[in-house]
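Lecture notes, unit on binding sites. The following record was shown on slide 14. It pairs a sequence with zinc ion.
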Amino acid sequence: MPSKSQLKTGRLALVKPLAVALIVLGLGTLAVFGLPKTNKKPGLTCSGKPCNVILIVADTLAAKHMSLYGYERETTPFLDEFFGKEGIVFENAWSNASWTVPSFISFFTSRLPSDAYVERIEDSLSESIPTFLDILRDEGVQLQYFHVTPFLLANRGVLEEFSPEERVGTLDPLLVYAAGDWIRAQEEGSNKKPYFALIHTYLVHDPYDPPEKYRTLFDGPVQYPGPVFDGTMFQAMRQPGGPTAAQVERYTRQYDQEIRFLDDVLKDFFSDLPPSTLDNSIVILMADHGEGFWEHGRFLHGNSVYEELTHVPFLLRVPGAPSRRISEPMSLIDLAPTLLDLHGTDRPPSFQGKSLLSVLKGDPLDEQRPQAESTDVQWPGKQEFATLQTVVRTARIDIPRDRAIRVGPWKLISTLTGQLEFYNLETDPAEKNNLLSRWQQLSEPDRNKTADLFEALDVPSPKLQSE
Ligand SMILES: [Zn+2]
């Protein structure tokens, strides 16, 4: 229920209809869109206080490999229940970048990668580009980042957004349990400052090496053939004729087994938290990008803007908010404005994303045109991983990149070699049937709806070409 002080404010008109709606729906009234005491705008309160935020980033978790998103293998039974039955599922969330650093910098700044970097993409951000972390910190929110060491030393652009006191580095999955201990201490301790906990797990990232009990899942062999490393997949790529179907199946299965492992770790994590945690916090689970299994002649990530890399989970638990599935496309740059809105804090003008606060309250998500980018060099022509990494890490902001934009089911890709691809993801989710040459035959409403995708990517539209 709204607190007495909230009821006294002139914001009651805003607060009350929602509170009433929640009561009518029997969905609990822990969260109301009230007025945190130090801010100008109505944010979201949890149990009468500013909400904590627990953000779990499952690195490299592709939506298409989760049963929650319709995958045929039961990879995420816990998440299916936890978010699918009692949370908000964004069915068409896009990562704006295809690998870790640009993706994080993008959702930290709410800017597309090409608009966010200073010089090299491994660098820390310019002071002139605010992140939502900077703003929350200024607002008195306690930040805590749980990350893998030493792997993340290679991703120092992400790490440096946090002060040394704000980081806890350990191994996976221990970092998830360390985060649980820390959250428990906050819930049970005397420190009542709101917190933002970022849990960044690499459990499903390569090498795909699931613990023993998962190795026979999904028709796995009795004899475990060993971990799949990036080098394993590069070697298969270089074979005459490329990787065999059996190799692709093995890599995919071991990745799927790791997802099931992650699902169990998260189940343990949530069941060990004090029950008050979910009343006091907004929980978000997402991925920074997906993973490729030869759908378009590529493995791993950082090398395309096809759905296997761009389509990521974006799942929320918001106290009191109704469970929903939202099919309208959005992208991860919407996270930062949403978090600031939840906190009742103004967004900086640099943010390009759109707040989802009204969507969490039950409004429909307006039509958006999310974009994604990948700075990769050509695959599979690029033979060595080391070379690829060198090229990616030293890339300037103005290097060519694959770019994609979508509206509704329509997706336009402009590759770094200048090729255009145009897909209908509803009828062709695997992106196999390039409709570009048939654009003129689309219905007039579809042509009108998609004409500005070409402008947005600064490529000639088929309409202009025919005139
Ligand atoms: Zn990543």
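Take-home: The longest strand covers residues 52-58.
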